[in-house]
């Protein structure tokens, strides 16, 4: 049986490809188990610096596979009580979402859990939780408004309407829109730039940026300043005090 997730590593760059194109990469238990295992490998493998997440075929991910939602364990797929935000949150390496097509509902949430997004001109997004009557659980209500602002997030989630890559770029959801055939090459180019940086400092900067999600601005600035002075002491730029 063909794997539901493809995984490869080259020059410190991991490429994860959701591989259920016949189902528009809809999420079943097998896909989640394989995806979480890949993310754990990225977290643990010191030779991997950055990850790219994309989809096979015309869609990035169409969300939960409604045909198996009541028959497969999609909420604790490995039996370890770790869900998508837990697995991705434990990874201190940058994740680039390379959005090749439709990212719908749970697939949209999967994209939002990446550090930033690069979109094909064919990409489109929709939050249909309200349309299908499924409660969001992977961060939609919080992560979307962080990207586009609360009022735009309300419009997106209340209407359930699709919007394309250019609007996603205008609204700050995606960083770049590129021709479809350039999506993975561009993502790899960005990943290569990340690989050229200091790995420890890259991880530190990611943690500092994300600390702002749980602390006030003044607390976040203090954390950065404290880390800076510790850095100076550890590297003998100033005397230990």
Explain how this protein is built:
- The protein has 2 domains: 191 residues, Alpha-Beta Complex (2-enoyl-CoA Hydratase, Chain A, domain 1); 36 residues, no CATH class.
- It has a 6-stranded mixed β-sheet with strand order 1-2-3-5-7-10, with helices on both faces. Strands 4-6-8-9 form a 4-stranded mixed β-sheet.
- The chain is built from 10 helices and 10 strands.
- The model has no long low-confidence stretch (mean pLDDT 95).
- By secondary structure, it is an alpha/beta fold.
- The protein is globular.
- The termini are far apart.
- It is 42% helix and 17% strand.
What would CATH call the class of the largest domain? Alpha Beta
Number of helices: 10
- Largest sheet entry: 6 strands, mixed
pLDDT under 50 segments (min length 5)?
A: none
The termini sit apart by 61 Å
Number of domains: 2
CATH topology (level 3) name of the largest domain: 2-enoyl-CoA Hydratase, Chain A, domain 1
Question: What number is the mean pLDDT?
Answer: 95
Q: Given the helix and strand composition, which structural class is it?
A: alpha/beta
Q: CATH superfamily of the largest domain, called what?
A: 2-enoyl-CoA Hydratase, Chain A, domain 1
Major sheet: arrangement of strands:
1-2-3-5-7-10
The CATH architecture designation of the largest domain is Alpha-Beta Complex
Gross geometry: globular
How many strand segments?
10
The succession of helices and strands, N to C, reads EEHEEHEEHEEHHHEHEHHH
Share of helix, binned: 40-55%
Give the C-alpha Rg.
19 Å
Strand content: 15-25%
């Amino acid at each position: 049986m063909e794997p539901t997730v493809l995984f490869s590593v080259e020059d410190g760059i991991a490429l994860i490809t959701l591989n259920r194109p016949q189902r528009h990469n809809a999420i079943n238990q097998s896909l989640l188990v394989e995806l979480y295992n890949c993310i754990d490998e990225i977290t643990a493998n010191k030779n991997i610096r950055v990850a790219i997440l994309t989809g096979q075929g015309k869609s990035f991910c169409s969300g939960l596979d409604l045909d198996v939602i009541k028959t497969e364990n999609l909420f604790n797929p490995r039996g370890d009580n770790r869900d998508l935000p837990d697995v991705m949150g434990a990874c201190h390496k940058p994740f680039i979402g390379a959005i090749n097509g439709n990212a719908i509902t749970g697939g949209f949430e999967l994209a939002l859990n990446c550090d930033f997004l690069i979109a094909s001109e064919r990409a489109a997004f929709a939050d249909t939780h309200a349309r299908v009557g499924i409660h969001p659980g992977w961060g939609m209500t919080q992560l979307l408004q962080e990207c586009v602002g609360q009022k735009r997030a309300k419009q997106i989630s209340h209407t359930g309407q699709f919007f394309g890559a250019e609007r996603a770029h205008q609204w700050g959801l995606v960083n770049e829109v590129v021709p479809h055939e350039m999506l993975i090459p561009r993502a790899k180019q960005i990943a290569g730039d990340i690989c050229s940086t200091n790995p420890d400092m890259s991880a530190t900067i990611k943690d500092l940026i994300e600390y702002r999600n749980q602390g006030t601005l003044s607390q976040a600035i203090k954390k950065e300043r404290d880390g800076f002075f510790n850095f100076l002491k550890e590297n003998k730029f100033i005397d230990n005090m």
